[in-house]
């Protein structure tokens, strides 16, 4: 599903040049659950940005479903992202002015799904995430665990092929963290491909494969024993 | 998800400062739009008349003097026969009419002695053919053809009790001459150069004064109007008008007298807008309105852009889930448009709440200001505003990189913010400096020495009274211990004066035109403290009818023309309307008219042995109790009359009413702009301080004092404040010079004045910056670093 070859990302300011990714090559197959680990500043988030089509690499190749997407323009990236990639963030990134229902509905709105269909799909997803009873609440009325479930609901509502999670349990206690990891595992078992950035060895243990980054390079790839 | 719901929900979100943004935009719009309406009102004078583009006012153009030494005078009064003459002799003239004023806001009364006030004109029967008003009752043409008949306006009729047709009224100055009300017309709108409440038939004129309605020369008291055939170029009528003159006026006599008189046609719609004072005023008011609205818009955008860092993440979340640039633009446009709508509602409420103040300042009712045409224009302005306040933020917001979803937005858009702040400070400095200059000039206007003394002076206008009645007033007032002195005069110097021509005996050449102050009694000069510099003043024992005292300018000019080496005293001259007279004294020139519209002609005062119309009452002390005593005396003599007893100083102040209005408009504009700018500055510095919280904390940990932190922010702003102050000051100097162009006395535009105004703005700006930064600078840096 994902093929990355000799990927480089360099950030330049007037005085400094920072190499965030330095010749990374990797692949992710359909239905895989990958964990990316490494110390702060090793390039995890940069890699996730590029995988999520939020940013372009400086050089190298990124093939998504066999199509080169590493040099798309912003508008093309937006089109490619729409409905294909779901995001789960450490700080949930729910929109404060929107209710739970509206937050989850957001990706469908931009996919121009009709209102009745949107309603049906949001209700189903919220039910699946066990958060239906909070549909009309605003994010600040929810616990951290509930907020992350809403964020996951939003990430999966459009049935994306790929879910990218950036430290999804980073802001949660152990119980809520476990619930979120169970949810991601369940989604993966249903067929979703997941790439997750984490600092937690425990969370990484849920993945099929763990990629370790250091100074913008892959230093190890470890298959899970599960 | 509906964007509208989102906008409503974010309305009260503290971090976005929406309430401040909307309130300041609403306030700016309220003042700005009302000033624009006033400008529009000024530009729309007389366009309510049907076919107004074909209606013209006849202007007299008199060239006086010999070739090379020629003086051209233009005035809108014409002799009675000119307008009907044009109708009869110039085929392109479709209709013509003439009017003459009979009294501006003059008291009149009914047979049961109920007093009202109204502006009287006399007009001929075809008046409404040229300048029509809808009739409520009666046929205007028939009524204005009948002697001692009149039409009254709807508002006057209502004041008098409704259907007043058939009732009679008497003009206060013409007691005993009953005028029958024959019809009622719809009030004349406020945006007209010709304001009137009562139209008396012109055929009645012989009942009130000399009937010169058919004179071709002289008695030029009429305003003549013509309506031209469609497609007629008024300039093309010059030969036909000249031929009319040659047939009816003694051109040869005029030539001998050194006068070349001609007539031109002034377009009705441009009478007001071409007036230099109105032009200047509308230009400056437009500048103020622009400055205000511009500042409000800049302020709104500044605060909105200041929230960019806070809102960057939300925008990137939208983008992350598929929102394109156009979706973000739509969201921001929707938000700014909604804010504009609320701001407009607030501005309408503000205008409604402060309706009285606005009407007083602008001298026009709010209803008249907001005509359909003006509202359409304001609508276009609002659309433009919505585009500006929507476009710039939506452009900036839609460019927020989607990757910001993973990290904080670092772009500060400082360039944008500083540019906006620069323009806000520039307009504030402009208005504050202009405000100070206009205040000082106004002070000059109302306090400058006119060459006579009017301290503790009251006056009473004894119009329509006979000699005995006036004498009775004088005698009774003299008996009051509170009264220091009484004098009478036909004219007061601050009024516009009629002109008369000076001749030498046995010489038909007109030497020059003077401002005629007409008669005054023997006490006038000493009461007004007008110094006699040559000859003598008037006294009861030796002064005779025909004695005249003249201004220094008069005496010098005449001595030069007549080649009198021994001065003007004792010389006999002729002055039109007065015939033979003898110069007995010369006084220092006094101001005739006002500083803004000074009559610079030589002047003359004639001795009058009878009490004149204006009774001047010099008080020992000008206190309300004393004024009341004078009032009581007058009321006792004329119990049925409405007594008005103006203080001379107040009348002087009243002359400069338009300057006062301008000052008020600038005061309000300046204060609102200053407040809006300070709000913008607070918003900007608050966001800057928040953005740099960690930096401040790190500097503090590393030994920076609070004053070091304050200096950092002050320095950051100074480079933008200084150029803004200089540009604002220069703009104010240019505007003030333009405004003061026609004033004969001007306040000094010294560099110190500009430096003081700039310093005041600078101190205010820096105080706001410092106070705003102080809180963050004072916080425990450890706490800040912990929370960040």
UniProtKB/TrEMBL annotation, chain A:
A matching Pfam family: ABC_tran
Stretches assigned to the ABC transporter domain: 2-226
Cellular component annotations (GO), alphabetically ordered: membrane protein complex; plasma membrane
PROSITE patterns xref list: ABC_TRANSPORTER_1, ABC_TRANSPORTER_2
Transmembrane segments: none
InterPro entries, per database record: AAA+_ATPase, ABC_transporter-like_ATP-bd, ABC_transporter-like_CS, ABC_transpr_LolD-like, MacB-like_ATP-bd, P-loop_NTPase
Record key words, sorted: ATP-binding, Nucleotide-binding, Transport
Gene3D superfamilies per record: P-loop containing nucleotide triphosphate hydrolases
GO molecular function, one term: ATP binding
UniProt entry tagged with the keyword ATP-binding: yes
Family: Belongs to the ABC transporter superfamily. Macrolide exporter (TC 3.A.1.122) family.
Protein known as: Putative ABC transport system ATP-binding protein
UniProtKB/TrEMBL annotation, chain B:
Annotated membrane topology: Multi-pass membrane protein
Signal peptide (residue range): none
Pfam family, one: MacB_PCD
Domain of life according to the entry: Bacteria
Name assigned to this protein: Putative ABC transport system permease protein
Gene Ontology MF terms in the entry: transmembrane transporter activity
Compartments, as annotated in UniProt: Cell membrane
Key word NADP present: no
Domain ABC3 transporter permease C-terminal per the UniProt entry, residue ranges: 287-401, 670-781
Transmembrane segments: 20-41, 283-310, 331-358, 370-397, 418-438, 662-684, 718-740, 752-775
Native source species: Dysgonomonas alginatilytica
